[in-house]
Amino acid sequence: MSIPEQNAPVHTAGAAEESRPSLSALLLDPSFWADWASVVGLVGLVIVFGISQPVFLSIANLQALLLAAAILVVLSIGQTFVVATAGIDLSLAAAVMLGAIILGLVDAAGYGIFLACVLAVAATSAVGFLNGVLITAGRIPDFVVTLGTLSGVTGLGLILSGGEPIMVGSPFLLRLASGSFGPFGYPVWVAISAVLVAHIALYHTRFGVHLLATGGQVESASALGIRTNRVKIAAYTISGFCAGIAALLLVARIGSAEPQINTSLLLNSVAAVVLGGVSLFGGRASILGPAIGALMLTALVNGLTLLSVSAFYQPLAVGAIVVLAALIMRYQK
Protein backbone atom coordinates (compact mmCIF):
# COMPACT_ATOMS: atom_id res chain seq x y z
CA MET A 1 0.00 0.00 0.00
CA SER A 2 2.81 2.36 0.82
CA ILE A 3 4.61 1.92 -2.50
CA PRO A 4 1.77 3.17 -4.69
CA GLU A 5 1.22 6.07 -2.28
CA GLN A 6 4.88 7.07 -2.61
CA ASN A 7 4.79 6.76 -6.36
CA ALA A 8 1.46 8.54 -6.73
CA PRO A 9 2.94 12.06 -6.77
CA VAL A 10 5.42 10.95 -9.40
CA HIS A 11 2.63 9.64 -11.61
CA THR A 12 0.63 12.80 -11.04
CA ALA A 13 3.56 14.98 -12.00
CA GLY A 14 4.20 12.83 -15.06
CA ALA A 15 0.57 13.10 -16.08
CA ALA A 16 0.73 16.87 -15.68
CA GLU A 17 3.80 17.02 -17.89
CA GLU A 18 2.16 14.81 -20.48
CA SER A 19 -0.97 16.99 -20.47
CA ARG A 20 1.09 20.10 -21.16
CA PRO A 21 0.92 20.71 -24.93
CA SER A 22 4.10 20.96 -26.93
CA LEU A 23 4.91 24.05 -28.98
CA SER A 24 4.04 22.29 -32.23
CA ALA A 25 0.72 21.10 -30.82
CA LEU A 26 0.00 24.60 -29.56
CA LEU A 27 0.66 26.14 -32.97
CA LEU A 28 -1.61 23.56 -34.61
CA ASP A 29 -4.41 24.23 -32.14
CA PRO A 30 -7.03 26.53 -33.77
CA SER A 31 -8.10 27.86 -30.37
CA PHE A 32 -4.61 29.31 -29.88
CA TRP A 33 -4.99 31.42 -33.03
CA ALA A 34 -8.51 32.39 -31.99
CA ASP A 35 -7.31 33.68 -28.62
CA TRP A 36 -4.24 35.46 -29.98
CA ALA A 37 -5.49 36.59 -33.41
CA SER A 38 -5.00 40.32 -32.82
CA VAL A 39 -1.50 39.94 -31.34
CA VAL A 40 -0.30 37.56 -34.04
CA GLY A 41 -1.86 39.72 -36.73
CA LEU A 42 -0.27 42.91 -35.42
CA VAL A 43 3.17 41.34 -35.13
CA GLY A 44 2.82 39.87 -38.62
CA LEU A 45 1.85 43.22 -40.13
CA VAL A 46 4.72 45.00 -38.40
CA ILE A 47 7.20 42.47 -39.79
CA VAL A 48 5.78 42.52 -43.34
CA PHE A 49 5.43 46.29 -43.61
CA GLY A 50 8.71 46.90 -41.79
CA ILE A 51 10.56 44.80 -44.37
CA SER A 52 8.71 46.04 -47.46
CA GLN A 53 8.66 49.71 -46.41
CA PRO A 54 11.30 50.57 -43.77
CA VAL A 55 9.75 53.99 -43.12
CA PHE A 56 6.87 52.11 -41.49
CA LEU A 57 9.08 51.50 -38.43
CA SER A 58 10.27 55.10 -38.20
CA ILE A 59 9.50 56.91 -34.95
CA ALA A 60 7.48 59.56 -36.76
CA ASN A 61 5.28 57.01 -38.52
CA LEU A 62 4.74 54.91 -35.39
CA GLN A 63 3.69 58.02 -33.47
CA ALA A 64 1.30 58.96 -36.28
CA LEU A 65 -0.06 55.41 -36.29
CA LEU A 66 -0.76 55.51 -32.55
CA LEU A 67 -2.49 58.88 -32.86
CA ALA A 68 -4.66 57.55 -35.67
CA ALA A 69 -5.54 54.46 -33.63
CA ALA A 70 -6.56 56.36 -30.49
CA ILE A 71 -10.12 57.09 -31.66
CA LEU A 72 -10.71 53.51 -32.78
CA VAL A 73 -9.33 52.13 -29.51
CA VAL A 74 -11.82 54.21 -27.51
CA LEU A 75 -14.72 53.15 -29.74
CA SER A 76 -13.73 49.48 -29.60
CA ILE A 77 -13.85 49.64 -25.79
CA GLY A 78 -17.43 50.90 -25.89
CA GLN A 79 -18.39 48.26 -28.44
CA THR A 80 -16.76 45.59 -26.28
CA PHE A 81 -19.04 46.29 -23.32
CA VAL A 82 -22.08 45.95 -25.59
CA VAL A 83 -20.87 42.79 -27.35
CA ALA A 84 -20.08 41.26 -23.96
CA THR A 85 -23.84 41.29 -23.31
CA ALA A 86 -24.43 39.51 -26.66
CA GLY A 87 -25.51 42.78 -28.26
CA ILE A 88 -24.18 45.17 -30.87
CA ASP A 89 -24.23 48.96 -31.22
CA LEU A 90 -24.74 50.03 -34.83
CA SER A 91 -25.36 53.65 -33.82
CA LEU A 92 -21.80 54.22 -32.63
CA ALA A 93 -20.60 56.24 -35.63
CA ALA A 94 -23.81 58.30 -35.71
CA ALA A 95 -23.36 59.10 -32.01
CA VAL A 96 -19.82 60.30 -32.74
CA MET A 97 -21.19 62.62 -35.42
CA LEU A 98 -23.90 63.98 -33.10
CA GLY A 99 -21.38 64.58 -30.33
CA ALA A 100 -19.13 66.46 -32.73
CA ILE A 101 -22.03 68.61 -33.99
CA ILE A 102 -23.18 69.51 -30.48
CA LEU A 103 -19.63 70.36 -29.48
CA GLY A 104 -19.28 72.64 -32.50
CA LEU A 105 -22.65 74.35 -31.98
CA VAL A 106 -22.16 75.02 -28.27
CA ASP A 107 -18.64 76.32 -28.83
CA ALA A 108 -19.78 78.52 -31.73
CA ALA A 109 -22.55 79.93 -29.52
CA GLY A 110 -19.88 81.22 -27.15
CA TYR A 111 -20.57 79.00 -24.14
CA GLY A 112 -16.99 77.79 -23.92
CA ILE A 113 -15.21 74.66 -25.01
CA PHE A 114 -15.46 72.88 -21.66
CA LEU A 115 -19.25 73.11 -21.51
CA ALA A 116 -19.31 72.09 -25.18
CA CYS A 117 -17.29 68.97 -24.40
CA VAL A 118 -19.48 68.06 -21.42
CA LEU A 119 -22.71 68.47 -23.40
CA ALA A 120 -21.29 66.49 -26.33
CA VAL A 121 -20.40 63.54 -24.12
CA ALA A 122 -23.73 63.82 -22.28
CA ALA A 123 -25.61 63.72 -25.59
CA THR A 124 -23.83 60.62 -26.86
CA SER A 125 -24.26 58.93 -23.47
CA ALA A 126 -27.98 59.71 -23.71
CA VAL A 127 -28.07 58.01 -27.10
CA GLY A 128 -26.54 54.90 -25.56
CA PHE A 129 -28.94 55.06 -22.61
CA LEU A 130 -31.89 55.33 -25.00
CA ASN A 131 -30.65 52.29 -26.90
CA GLY A 132 -30.43 50.29 -23.70
CA VAL A 133 -33.90 51.29 -22.51
CA LEU A 134 -35.54 50.48 -25.84
CA ILE A 135 -33.80 47.11 -26.03
CA THR A 136 -34.64 46.04 -22.48
CA ALA A 137 -37.99 47.70 -21.77
CA GLY A 138 -39.30 47.36 -25.30
CA ARG A 139 -37.84 43.87 -25.76
CA ILE A 140 -36.72 44.87 -29.24
CA PRO A 141 -33.65 43.22 -30.82
CA ASP A 142 -30.51 45.31 -30.42
CA PHE A 143 -29.86 45.19 -34.16
CA VAL A 144 -33.22 46.83 -34.91
CA VAL A 145 -32.98 49.44 -32.15
CA THR A 146 -29.45 50.60 -32.91
CA LEU A 147 -30.12 50.60 -36.64
CA GLY A 148 -33.11 52.86 -36.04
CA THR A 149 -31.06 55.05 -33.71
CA LEU A 150 -28.36 55.29 -36.36
CA SER A 151 -30.87 56.74 -38.81
CA GLY A 152 -32.57 59.01 -36.28
CA VAL A 153 -29.36 60.42 -34.81
CA THR A 154 -27.96 60.99 -38.30
CA GLY A 155 -31.04 63.00 -39.22
CA LEU A 156 -30.83 64.99 -35.99
CA GLY A 157 -27.21 65.84 -36.64
CA LEU A 158 -28.02 67.04 -40.15
CA ILE A 159 -30.91 69.17 -38.87
CA LEU A 160 -28.83 70.78 -36.13
CA SER A 161 -25.89 71.53 -38.44
CA GLY A 162 -27.88 72.37 -41.55
CA GLY A 163 -25.70 69.88 -43.36
CA GLU A 164 -22.69 72.19 -43.09
CA PRO A 165 -19.42 71.57 -41.24
CA ILE A 166 -18.82 73.66 -38.12
CA MET A 167 -15.32 75.00 -37.63
CA VAL A 168 -13.91 74.61 -34.12
CA GLY A 169 -10.77 76.62 -33.42
CA SER A 170 -10.43 75.98 -29.71
CA PRO A 171 -6.88 76.29 -28.33
CA PHE A 172 -7.74 73.51 -25.88
CA LEU A 173 -8.61 71.08 -28.66
CA LEU A 174 -5.57 72.21 -30.62
CA ARG A 175 -3.34 71.32 -27.66
CA LEU A 176 -5.20 68.04 -27.26
CA ALA A 177 -4.53 67.13 -30.87
CA SER A 178 -0.93 68.30 -31.18
CA GLY A 179 0.43 68.20 -27.64
CA SER A 180 2.33 65.30 -26.13
CA PHE A 181 3.57 63.97 -22.84
CA GLY A 182 6.68 61.86 -23.04
CA PRO A 183 6.79 59.72 -26.18
CA PHE A 184 3.03 59.81 -26.83
CA GLY A 185 0.55 62.44 -27.90
CA TYR A 186 -2.36 63.34 -25.62
CA PRO A 187 -4.90 61.31 -27.64
CA VAL A 188 -2.78 58.20 -27.09
CA TRP A 189 -2.77 58.84 -23.35
CA VAL A 190 -6.54 59.24 -23.46
CA ALA A 191 -6.80 55.84 -25.17
CA ILE A 192 -4.39 54.23 -22.68
CA SER A 193 -6.38 55.66 -19.77
CA ALA A 194 -9.61 54.34 -21.30
CA VAL A 195 -8.09 50.87 -21.63
CA LEU A 196 -6.92 50.84 -18.00
CA VAL A 197 -10.23 52.09 -16.60
CA ALA A 198 -12.24 49.67 -18.74
CA HIS A 199 -9.99 46.75 -17.77
CA ILE A 200 -10.48 47.48 -14.08
CA ALA A 201 -14.23 47.86 -14.55
CA LEU A 202 -14.51 44.57 -16.44
CA TYR A 203 -12.26 42.38 -14.29
CA HIS A 204 -12.14 43.96 -10.84
CA THR A 205 -15.66 45.20 -10.13
CA ARG A 206 -19.00 43.59 -9.41
CA PHE A 207 -20.38 45.29 -12.51
CA GLY A 208 -17.87 43.44 -14.69
CA VAL A 209 -18.89 40.10 -13.19
CA HIS A 210 -22.56 40.90 -13.74
CA LEU A 211 -21.86 42.06 -17.29
CA LEU A 212 -20.18 38.81 -18.32
CA ALA A 213 -22.81 36.76 -16.50
CA THR A 214 -25.57 38.62 -18.34
CA GLY A 215 -23.91 38.00 -21.68
CA GLY A 216 -23.16 34.37 -20.92
CA GLN A 217 -26.64 33.27 -19.86
CA VAL A 218 -29.18 35.98 -19.10
CA GLU A 219 -31.72 33.59 -17.54
CA SER A 220 -29.17 32.16 -15.12
CA ALA A 221 -27.92 35.64 -14.28
CA SER A 222 -31.46 36.78 -13.50
CA ALA A 223 -31.98 33.71 -11.32
CA LEU A 224 -28.90 34.73 -9.33
CA GLY A 225 -30.44 38.12 -8.63
CA ILE A 226 -28.50 40.11 -11.22
CA ARG A 227 -30.53 42.97 -12.66
CA THR A 228 -29.72 42.13 -16.23
CA ASN A 229 -31.75 44.97 -17.74
CA ARG A 230 -29.79 47.53 -15.75
CA VAL A 231 -26.55 45.88 -16.79
CA LYS A 232 -27.48 46.07 -20.47
CA ILE A 233 -28.56 49.70 -20.17
CA ALA A 234 -25.25 50.50 -18.47
CA ALA A 235 -23.32 48.73 -21.25
CA TYR A 236 -25.00 50.77 -23.98
CA THR A 237 -24.55 53.97 -21.96
CA ILE A 238 -20.84 53.22 -21.68
CA SER A 239 -20.74 52.72 -25.44
CA GLY A 240 -22.37 56.12 -25.90
CA PHE A 241 -19.92 57.70 -23.48
CA CYS A 242 -16.99 56.28 -25.43
CA ALA A 243 -18.54 57.69 -28.62
CA GLY A 244 -18.51 61.11 -26.95
CA ILE A 245 -14.84 60.84 -26.03
CA ALA A 246 -14.11 59.74 -29.60
CA ALA A 247 -16.04 62.76 -30.89
CA LEU A 248 -13.81 65.10 -28.86
CA LEU A 249 -10.68 63.45 -30.24
CA LEU A 250 -12.05 63.55 -33.78
CA VAL A 251 -12.95 67.26 -33.66
CA ALA A 252 -9.57 68.03 -32.10
CA ARG A 253 -7.86 66.14 -34.90
CA ILE A 254 -9.64 67.65 -37.92
CA GLY A 255 -10.55 71.04 -36.45
CA SER A 256 -14.23 70.88 -37.37
CA ALA A 257 -17.48 69.04 -36.72
CA GLU A 258 -18.51 67.22 -39.86
CA PRO A 259 -22.20 66.29 -40.34
CA GLN A 260 -21.24 63.04 -42.01
CA ILE A 261 -21.05 59.53 -40.63
CA ASN A 262 -17.68 57.86 -40.90
CA THR A 263 -18.93 54.33 -41.51
CA SER A 264 -15.42 52.95 -41.15
CA LEU A 265 -15.54 53.87 -37.45
CA LEU A 266 -18.51 51.56 -36.92
CA LEU A 267 -17.21 48.72 -39.06
CA ASN A 268 -13.72 48.89 -37.64
CA SER A 269 -14.97 49.04 -34.04
CA VAL A 270 -16.80 45.76 -34.59
CA ALA A 271 -13.80 44.36 -36.45
CA ALA A 272 -11.45 45.27 -33.59
CA VAL A 273 -13.76 43.50 -31.13
CA VAL A 274 -13.82 40.36 -33.28
CA LEU A 275 -10.05 40.42 -33.75
CA GLY A 276 -9.64 40.94 -30.00
CA GLY A 277 -11.23 37.58 -29.23
CA VAL A 278 -14.48 38.90 -27.76
CA SER A 279 -17.27 36.37 -28.22
CA LEU A 280 -20.08 37.71 -30.38
CA PHE A 281 -22.42 35.48 -28.36
CA GLY A 282 -21.57 37.31 -25.13
CA GLY A 283 -20.13 36.14 -21.83
CA ARG A 284 -16.48 36.41 -22.85
CA ALA A 285 -14.60 39.66 -23.30
CA SER A 286 -11.31 41.44 -22.84
CA ILE A 287 -10.22 45.04 -23.18
CA LEU A 288 -6.62 44.63 -24.28
CA GLY A 289 -7.60 42.32 -27.16
CA PRO A 290 -9.88 44.83 -28.96
CA ALA A 291 -7.36 47.61 -28.30
CA ILE A 292 -4.68 45.55 -30.04
CA GLY A 293 -7.20 44.75 -32.76
CA ALA A 294 -7.71 48.48 -33.29
CA LEU A 295 -3.95 48.94 -33.55
CA MET A 296 -3.78 46.09 -36.06
CA LEU A 297 -6.46 47.60 -38.31
CA THR A 298 -4.81 51.02 -38.15
CA ALA A 299 -1.42 49.48 -38.93
CA LEU A 300 -2.95 47.67 -41.91
CA VAL A 301 -4.33 50.88 -43.43
CA ASN A 302 -1.13 52.77 -42.62
CA GLY A 303 1.08 50.12 -44.21
CA LEU A 304 -1.05 49.83 -47.34
CA THR A 305 -0.97 53.61 -47.72
CA LEU A 306 2.83 53.63 -47.47
CA LEU A 307 2.92 50.93 -50.14
CA SER A 308 0.80 53.20 -52.37
CA VAL A 309 -2.06 50.70 -52.44
CA SER A 310 -5.24 52.37 -53.67
CA ALA A 311 -7.67 53.43 -50.96
CA PHE A 312 -10.33 51.46 -52.82
CA TYR A 313 -8.58 48.19 -51.93
CA GLN A 314 -8.03 48.99 -48.25
CA PRO A 315 -11.61 48.22 -47.10
CA LEU A 316 -11.35 44.95 -49.01
CA ALA A 317 -8.26 43.99 -47.02
CA VAL A 318 -9.91 44.96 -43.72
CA GLY A 319 -13.02 42.97 -44.61
CA ALA A 320 -11.01 39.89 -45.53
CA ILE A 321 -9.15 39.98 -42.21
CA VAL A 322 -12.37 40.38 -40.24
CA VAL A 323 -14.04 37.44 -42.00
CA LEU A 324 -10.93 35.34 -41.37
CA ALA A 325 -10.97 36.33 -37.71
CA ALA A 326 -14.66 35.43 -37.44
CA LEU A 327 -13.93 32.00 -38.91
CA ILE A 328 -11.08 31.47 -36.47
CA MET A 329 -13.35 32.53 -33.59
CA ARG A 330 -15.37 29.36 -34.14
CA TYR A 331 -12.52 27.43 -32.53
CA GLN A 332 -12.29 29.69 -29.51
CA LYS A 333 -12.32 27.80 -26.22
From TrEMBL:
EC number, as in UniProt: 3.6.3.17
**Topological type in the membrane:** Multi-pass membrane protein
Note whether Methyltransferase occurs among the keywords.
Answer: no
Superkingdom of origin organism: Bacteria
Q: Name one GO cellular component term.
A: plasma membrane
Q: What is its main location?
A: membrane
Q: Does the keyword rRNA processing apply?
A: no
Assigned keywords, A-Z = Cell membrane, Hydrolase, Membrane, Transmembrane, Transmembrane helix
Q: Molecular function (GO) terms listed? A: hydrolase activity; transmembrane transporter activity
Q: Which residues cross the membrane?
A: 36-57, 64-84, 90-106, 113-137, 143-163, 184-202, 233-255, 261-281, 312-331
Compartments where located = Cell membrane
Task: Return the Pfam families for the record.
Answer: BPD_transp_2
Name of protein: Monosaccharide-transporting ATPase
The organism named in the record is Mesorhizobium delmotii
